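Sorry to interrupt, but I need a hand with the structure work. It will help me judge whether the discrete encoding reads sensibly. Write everything out right here, beneath this request:
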Amino acid sequence: MLGKKDKPQPTIRQMELFHDTNLYIPTRTVYFGGGVINEDIVDSVTIAQVIKNLQILEHRDQGESITLVLNSCGGSWEDGIALYDMIRALKSPVNILAMGKVYSMGSVILQAGDKRIMTKHTAMMIHDGLEGVEAPPKAFEAWGEWSKVTRKQMYEIYYEQMVKKSPDITLGEIESMCSHDTILSAKNAVDVGLADIIMEDVIKE
């Protein structure tokens, strides 16, 4: 039986497939964003591919850590929270490396990581998001009520992490931060508890 150091090197075809799927199996790395146009938007297409890639790695070596490289301008709550829930459900630890930007839903996805790492100049933005529902009045009211539920879920996700750094913080304070576009540097994000460490510090350890 081959040991880990004796595993066969990837073939050219495997390398080509990596560029199609944003999955590099030898290093157990999944890439989301920073590529072709719209690839960094959280929607049903991009998230389905990320979830598929995570499940492939989970099946191959359950329990071995996975790295998700994340560069996202945000997007759909429903699709993003599907990825958040999937990451939290995996038995393999998932370390998320934020590069460039993690805006809106991208910042929520980052919170699912077992270790949340940001490169030095990555920016984070949190807010309540935008409403885009067009519907008859009664249906619009229903979606308005559902929006309150999803916003509360988002505040609780942030709170779960931020309270570790600031035990006195309240959901009301987080709601106030999300009432407008609050932009955080990587250092600010670490200071408030929305990230664990800056990549430069990891390298120095």
